[in-house]
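Lab manual, section 2.4: Encoding a predicted structure.

Procedure: take the sequence of the chain (386 residues), apply the prediction step described in section 2.3, and record the output as C-alpha cells. A sample record is shown.
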Amino acid sequence: MRRVTILFHHAGGGHRNAAEALKSTLTTQEYPWEVTLLDIQELLDRIDVVRRSTGIRIQDVYNQILRHGWTRFTPQLLKLLQGTIHVYHSAIVRLLRGYWADHPADLVLSVIPHFNREIAASLKGAGSAKPPFVTLITDLADYPPHFWIERESEYIIAGTERAKAQALTIGHAADHVFEASGMVLKPKFYEKTEIDRVAECRKRGLDPERLTGIVLFGGHGSRVMTDIVRNLDQSALDVQLILICGHNSKLEAKLKALQTRAAKLVLGFTTNVEYYMALSDFFIGKPGPGSISEALQFHLPVIVECNSKTLPQERFNATWVVEKGYGIVVRSFRKISDAVAQMTEPSTFRQLRANTVAYSNRALFEVSEILEKCLDRSRVASLTHQ
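Recorded output:
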C-alpha cells in the first residue's frame, strides 16, 4: 500500500478540512493509500517562539485574529511570520528530517502555506528513497512571495487558472503543475442533497415562497451578522435569512433575540451546513475560498465583502467572483441591502444563477488522480537517474 503524509495545521479551518477530506477519499478508493495526517504545529511546538513566551501557539494567535476581526494589519503580521520562519529555517528542516527518518512516506503532500520551502529542503538528500513533494494550494490564488509556491516545490496542484499561471511564471515546468477544477471540499458537498425544500422550510419556520439567504462567517461567526440582519430588516426587501453562528453562543443568543419582520433561522455550530445551503437561494459571508466554493457547489450566487480588513490572500477571491459572474462584492456590509436588491433583481438573479449552475468542482477526486501521476513520474525519474 502506498503511504502518503499530508501536512496541515489548524490556522483557519480550510487546511484541516482539505486534509481530512483527502484522507477519507484516499483511504477508501479502489487502490487505497495509507494516509498519515501530520499537524506541523505539533511537530514545531518546541521552537514556537510565541508559545514559549506566551503559552499560546502561533496558529491560535491567528485564529483569535480571525475570530475578533483584527485583520487590518495581517499583511504586516504575515511578513513577521515569514521572517521568523526564515530565521528558524534550519531548525525546522532538522525536525522534519527527523520525522521522515522515523515515518517514511512514498509521497508527501502539503496543504499549508509558508512552510513549503522548509518541507522541500527536508526531503532533499534522501537519494532514491526521496518521496515526491506535492503542494496543494487551498486558496484561489497565491499571495507571493513565500506564501504557497516556492521554487523548491516539486509538484503544484492549483484550483484556478490564476494559481496555475503563478506557478508557471515562477519557473515550474508545465508537466509539474496541475489544475484541479476548484477547491477540495468535504465529501458530502459533492453529494446531491435531495430534500423537499417546501416541507423543510416550513419545518424550520421559514416561508418557502421567500428568497432565502444563508449567512456564514466561519466557525465562530462574526459580529457583522447582527448588522446584516438589522440592515435587511429595515429595508423593503422580501428576503429571509439562515444565520449560522458556529461556536459563538453569545452571537447566537443575540441574533435570536432580535425582532424581525421576516422569518429567520439562527443556528449555532452544525455539521450539516450543506443541508441549510440546500434550503437557500444565495450566500452572504466572507470571501474565504472554502465558503465561496461550498456556496457555488449548491449553485448559490454570493455576496462578499472586500476592503482593507480582508485577508490579503483572500482579496483575489473577490475579483474572481466578479470576473466569473458568480456574485457581488461590497466594500462594506453596511451596503448589504443595496447588494441584495441588486442580486435579487429578476434578470440579474437569473444570470448569476445560470453562472453558478455551470460551475463544476470535482477537485477532491481529481487530486487523488493527480497524486498517482506525481508518484508515477517520480518513480520514472528515479529509474532514469540510476
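Check your result against the sample. The mean pLDDT is 91.
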